[in-house]
Fold this protein.
Amino acid sequence: MKKFTKKSSDVNHDGYCIVSSVKPKRGKKNILHRMAIDFPSSSVTAILGPSGGGKTTLLSVLTDSIHSNIQACAELNLPGESAFVPQQDSLHGFYTVRQYMHHYARLSGLPRNKATAQRIDTLIKQLGLQGQAEIRVGDIFIKGLSGGQKRRLSIALEALTNPNNFFLDEPTSGLDAESALQVMDFLKNYARAGPGRRVILTIHQPSSFIWTMIDHVVLLSQGKLMYQGPRDEIENFFSAAGFPTQHGWNPSDHYVTAVNDEFRDHELSVDEWADLFLDWSEETPQMGLAKQARPSILAASQEGYIKTHRAGCGPGVVIELTYRYFLNLWFNPGILGTRIAMYSMLALMVGALFWELGDRTDYESINSRAAVLFYCVAFFIFMSVAVLPFTVIERAIVDKEVQNNYYHPILYQVSQGLSSIPGAAVLAGLTTGIVVFMTKLQNPEWYFLDMFLSLLVAEALAQLVSHVVPHFVIGMAVIAGMYGFFMLFQGFMLIPSDFPDWLRWTYNVAFHTYSWRTFMDNEFRGRTFDSELFPTGEAVLKAFEIDDVNKTFDMIVLVGYAGVIHLVSFFVLVVKYNFFKGKLAPLDETARSPPPRRAKTNKKPMRNPSPKAFTPAIHELLDDVEVDV
């Protein structure tokens, strides 16, 4: 057959991906094998195949979100801006649908004008959310949207900035038939609404109606390319191979079943299917068109790219994220309210147990003062661990927003640091008012400042740990261990001179040290007691080896401690989103050529199959079913 040729300028296949290999860094088995895939503009491309076929891995390559333990060698050319909608809907529950859209418009730097408002209203209507526009998204504290409605909102949010490359992982998952059809209709119209747009999605089991709305198909099995090309041509390929779709079958089910040989023997193995597609695509004009166009594209752009850009400015993003944090506190009062209740209860218990302790001057009151101040440092600071679950839960939202480049992760950390200040002030003021009033300790202004700065350090540490740990339970265990270390070496249980020489450095590392000794200096300096052993407060401080404490210096140390932790958080975030993410290695020239064929076997595909032979595995399964009449 004579091959079809055409000038590259006439070809619409302006997006592509060439994969050489994708495999674990410590393994030899490929997750994805060599393949070349076109992603035509103005089209909806569906990636489908059996479970474990490589759909998610291919999508991670296309969206530049490869895991750090994966080694990928590929070349991408997907011009323009990109947006990705993950399968799990990561959303805040306190926004209404309309508020969430406006929030993302501000994060993106879109102008606050009538055109943006109209764009938002149009998207809400197109995705069938007009009846829910003023309903809150909902979470474990707030009842709101259904799962399908959240899914459609996630799509609307990412469509707001009109990305050229719109990636979606299972966009119809969890949707009823009508909702799924409307989502696909929206995506199809979206791809055709502007030049250079393309929608690329994974889909598990499209219905026959949804199948007709797909323009381009990528069929994978066991990490190998079974077919890529126009949806209208895939039936020709399977018919030529001897496996046409029988009457009454959903075509997509038939194609996925035919190339899946995991459960029982099929007429053709996955390797044979891969070879058949290569042979057929070279002999078919429509497929040869894309293959001949690719070298011309490569000559013009040797480095493909995925680019995502949002126009939001740094200060504006920080303000928006900080505002979002306080909205969360307002609509979920349990986040801060639970902590207020915990701090209030313990402060009241401390006040009741040590009622008017400050009026006493006996020897026992000295021990009681030191003990209550140790408790205030140890447990009021320890209870800051309660913020960790909410920080870890929000991480999925932040990961999605950072991947879609709404902001740099450092801006998020700056926002978190600013957001923690009012909460720490409220908790410090609450404990100061209750404890100092009931126990009559000295200098409440210094007590407040010390507790406030200590809580800021504790909040910063909780945020740092949340960036590292996979689950908040692990994070709470990590922080508990660190605080146990700090409490042990802060100088209350054992004075610094009694530390073993090789552990003496720990006294200066624990930030509890500076909090506790400032509390002690604040309470004891200038006091007299009815005790021959400790007639003055200075004698008590000397016994604990903190008689030379400078309270101002210790407060400066706490501020610096919080600053250092935030700087470490900045470093961790940069490493996490850059160095702990897989990178695409460049292709060598051999990767641009078609994959090598397997050795030919005597087995030939069927050209005139019987109705039973086209999917033998399914019919064998049906034959085994016994029906009792």
